[in-house]
Amino acid sequence: xxxxxxxxxxxxxxxxxxxxxxxAGLNAALLLGRARRKVxxxxxxxxxxxxxxxxxxxxxxxxxxxxALLEAGRAEVARYGVRLLRGRVEEIEPGFSVRxxxxxxxxxxxxLVATGLRDELPGIPGVRERWGKDVLHxxxxxxxxxxxxxxxxxxxxxxxxxxxxxxxxxxxxVIFLKxxxxxxxxxxxxxxxxxxxxxxGEIDHLVVxxxxxxxxxxxxxRVLPRAAVFLFPRMVPHDGLLTGLxxxxxxxxxxxxxxxxxxxxxxxxxxxxxxxxxxxVITAAxxxxxxxFALNADLVDEDVQRAVARRQAxxxxxx
Length: 319
Hints:
This protein is of the alpha/beta class. The protein folds into 2 domains: 203 residues, FAD/NAD(P)-binding domain; 109 residues, FAD/NAD(P)-binding domain (3-Layer(bba) Sandwich). It is 29% helix and 25% strand. Helix 2 links the parallel strand 4 and strand 5. Helix 1 packs parallel to helix 2 and helix 1 packs parallel to helix 8. The longest helix is centred in the C-terminal third of the chain and has 38 residues. It is elongated.
């Protein structure tokens, strides 16, 4: 048995414990398992893209349900001896001891945090209920499916202006609902010059009939028929485990890493949306692979250093 820093026992010490079993975490576990590393993956079962019926932009997996991708990924990593645990990690202690809520404490030589982010949605009635269906975020993920239809962009975030300009590629009928956004004169000119109509007035609620979005109703009762609406959510990373370990943030407020996902804390890596809000599923999977390569190389370096130290100690003892 291995004694953790808080005095609790764990039955095994892993080379790497991965927290989060999305595309980033599973792809990292796949490569580490194939490298014959002892790996455990812990996941709370709350993927960000759960509301979406399909994912797009992933070569060979375009249109696949997100849940099906994760199911296939779990089966693949299990073939290489990776241990999969359902649970929520409450704390990672230096050393590393990974504590699950109401469960075991896992020892690890290295940790990879791939816990993603949450989309903080505006409190407009109907938005949360239709999120991932006909209330959408990413034009690259969903624009093709609503191409040529009447669309609206909700002015709930400064990023909505860029989002609206992008959507013009998919439809000639895109309106920008200013809502409460303080729209700069320059942005208004850009929108209008690019063929987007700016509509004044606050949004009251989304009009839904028969499990389908029909339009947007403004305060005062005016209804604007739309087939889908886009909004830019506030993206909040699930980075509490990283900050708890002392990982620093960059100027934009996200955990700072190098190109492999290595944080400023030795032995701690991060990958996916927890460090990059722009990462799509295929991007996150690539980030997991990159982190896995770096993690394995770091472990090899440590193994070699230990082997050299043992040899030197043995040689010294015989001399």
